């Protein structure tokens, strides 16, 4: 079975806690995932950036922070925020507790080597080199001050990555989110990190998924390289709970969805749903500012585009409405069990009189075929078709889609049953119907503002 055989589904601490999450908060979220979301596919818990910074704070990074490092300059968890990491145990105890819940454990790490390791000129494990010799002090991240780059022409650079990732494998880390890799695109760094993962996997018999960030202007022409080196790669900059952020992902996912393949996934970024901003990078303590319809749009678009699903809201304090969205089994069914996914219609709708007509929104239709999962699980809608009818305008609209565009010209006059995949998650009246006869049959959807009607068309 390929690593990341389906798009991963999990929780990431960034949208709620930024750089400041604690061990107990991670465990509390893991417990909710185990109790409520694991049965429908959510199985990964990820600690985001700065777990090694004892001075971490909301809204920014700390220059010259006294990072917690071992004798070789490798990052260690801050033992105040992560008490089980005391005495050099690292994340091994916490990873074991996450694994005991049947979940996978992930962490974030920055490209390069800590500046503090270079200042101390610490040794590179297994070599005669030092951190100052392998660092590239001009090759730095534009937005985070923790690290210098590595001089990939120096043999000690690979050795340092090898030692870092080997430690992660010994801790039991299953998922590595490696940042500052794609904007600009760091092909030599990605290659070096991939080689380090392969060495650690062979040494410890422990598989690790590689997720690359950020995704600013990542082109599809890098697809072959990305598939050869990673299981996930971001396709946008950080996404937050704003309609304009969500709207921008329609075009990106339309571009990448036809290129998704088992084990290798374009990632539309975290889902800022539920209770976010507690101690986060952007905004204050709040529930997601996306409307309920926009939240369903986001989840549906990500699923139809087969993007990884990483929710950012604090699960224990999120409301029941959010958890009810997340525990919809259709999310895993479509991300794991669909094929030929893509946008098939995108049309602007004009309104106004002849003197001042303007675009009031777009009708966007996605389609995917139901298929058995890569692990052999039968499709929930065998021989069926998934369809998502989106409307980006700010007033509800009745959208008509020719049935033949969804099920094919030969199947348009067949017997089909539309199943609303969000129907039991909302109190709204039925919003879909099939109208007309033969080749003129249409799927008619009453779509809310910034909303979606998501259906499975099952053959009778």
TrEMBL record:
<keyword id="KW-0378">Hydrolase</keyword>
<dbReference type="GO" id="GO:0005975">
    <property type="term" value="P:carbohydrate metabolic process"/>
</dbReference>
<dbReference type="GO" id="GO:0004557">
    <property type="term" value="F:alpha-galactosidase activity"/>
</dbReference>
<dbReference type="InterPro" id="IPR013785">
    <property type="entry name" value="Aldolase_TIM"/>
</dbReference>
<dbReference type="Pfam" id="PF16499">
    <property type="entry name" value="Melibiase_2"/>
</dbReference>
<keyword id="KW-1015">Disulfide bond</keyword>
<dbReference type="InterPro" id="IPR002241">
    <property type="entry name" value="Glyco_hydro_27"/>
</dbReference>
<comment type="similarity">
    <text>Belongs to the glycosyl hydrolase 27 family.</text>
</comment>
<dbReference type="InterPro" id="IPR017853">
    <property type="entry name" value="GH"/>
</dbReference>
<keyword id="KW-0326">Glycosidase</keyword>
<protein>
    <recommendedName>
        <fullName>Alpha-galactosidase</fullName>
        <ecNumber>3.2.1.22</ecNumber>
    </recommendedName>
</protein>
